[in-house]
Design goal:
Strand order of the largest sheet: 1-2-3-4
Distance between the termini: 29 Å
Radius of gyration: 20 Å
Helix content: under 10%
Shape: globular
Structural class: mainly beta
Strand content: over 45%
Largest sheet: 4 strands, antiparallel
Length: about 375
Amino acid sequence: MRTRSVTPLGDSLIAVSTWDEDVFFVDVTDPGKPTIVSVFRTPGFSPGNMVAINGNMYLSESSGLVVADIREPTRPKLIGLLDDKGEVLAAEGDRLYVTDRRGPKGVPRGVQIWDTTNPSSLTLAGVYIPPQYRVGENYLVFKRRGIPTDDQLAAETAVYSDAAKTSMTPKLSCNPGISFDADIKNELLYASVSGALCTRDGAIRNLKVGLALKGGLWIVDVKNPNEPKAVGFLPLEGDAWDVKVQGDYAYLATAFPGFQIVDISDPTNPILVGVHDAPSVAGVVEVEDNIAYIGDIRSLHIFDVTDPVQPIRIGLMSGFFAIDDIASRNGIIYLAGIYHGPVDEAGTCQSTESISTYGVHFLRVIDLEARPFE
């Protein structure tokens, strides 16, 4: 077994999902000795990202979108299941944001907006599909779904050069990649997306070099979830894998360079202000109190982002085989993934009986004040 994601549910409780079928609720009152208090077995397997809203947890797994009542963490119970294979991204108020897999071939190419007013019966309020995904053979599929609406298209054209023209080009055959992650703040959705690799007349054209199909950071107004509208776009070098928003800045884990910081004080004009090339390929990012945590395949990189223009790496922890997720609460870091170190180290919570130090299912809990890094 291997942990997949970790979600703080308060100062003393976290939820940890695995690549099998379980979600563990863990008491971290003493972070050095985390204790499993209950196990929630999902209907399918491989539960992924999780968010909590108003005493309910929403998580994505093989059978669909799962809703669980977690008001009593020692007795979580299933209250809803949607046959939707999207990955949970974020939540705000009574809305849940999930990757959209209803387009061609089920590849997640946009973001669904779900109304969670009735947790046992969610309703789909709207969908946002970035224009680089509405090209070639995909165009007619999304057009049948009414994506984009005329108002959406007009808004995109204003912030994204030639978006309308490109989205209506039927001669292209594209594999546009996926929407990797999103964060939400004050009804503005910040979505990190990849660019598009397309073919025309059998010739491969990497259209990332052209603005119209380039990946980056989309900023979408979702005040009216039925008709989300793009208000800003920042093209980025390298695919954007993960995004977290804090204050006036968006922090992105990207393919290259690994860490990028965007000023979003004016959502209509996002500006890249800080870049750090370590790690070279980053997969996950977390930010708390001007400290950013960036995970690559084998290491955790810790940055001081007090000055976002000049992020300074202040710590490095190695010894990992994979870091799948990072969460932070009150200066405590929670890592999910695979660890090479001793399984009996303080702060490691086992949920298997394996004594192997390789590929063991783990939750690594780290107290920054102890400065356990190089």
